[in-house]
Amino acid sequence: xxxxxxxxxxxxxxxxxxxxxxxxxxxxxxxxxxxxxxxxxxxxxxxxxxxxxxxxxxxxxxxxxxxxxxxxxxxxxxxxxxxxxxxxxxxxxxxxxxxxxxxxxxxxxxxxxxxxxxxxxxxxxxxxxxxxxxxxxxxxxxxxxxxxxxxxxxxxxxxx
Length: 160
Description:
CATH superfamily: Deoxyuridine triphosphatase (dUTPase)
Structural class: mainly beta
CATH architecture: Distorted Sandwich
CATH topology: Deoxyuridine 5'-Triphosphate Nucleotidohydrolase, Chain A
Strand order of the largest sheet: 2-11-6-8
Low-confidence stretches: none
CATH class: Mainly Beta
Shape: globular
Strand content: 35-45%
Helix content: under 10%
Number of strands: 14
Largest sheet: 4 strands, antiparallel
Distance between the termini: 28 Å
């Protein structure tokens, strides 16, 4: 399949663009969150992706994350490999001295899809794959089985 598929169980969690000129799509938190001072909290984003070999995704903080949401992405930029089939997780750090709370569906990060190169071979540079957004709770629950990969749904730190 030569397309990028973004799947969620909830239409409100599908990534959105703020304007037609936006480079990235905004990601939301899937539930109400409270991050304690000095804490790094793993926050579910409610999406899973299929990307063809040669594509990956990067998750960045939204520009307003530190000034309006009073949080930072603990890992600055998260990289998601083409063969990852699990739910996207945002690692949010509260740098303030007070708890920081946000309701579900707050836009906290942004996602970019990119080509990458491996060894001497080029992957993902011949054409830009179509991006498809899909709400399908059954597919979401069975995503790793439907789109099998060596990595599967293993998340943060699962490759060593």
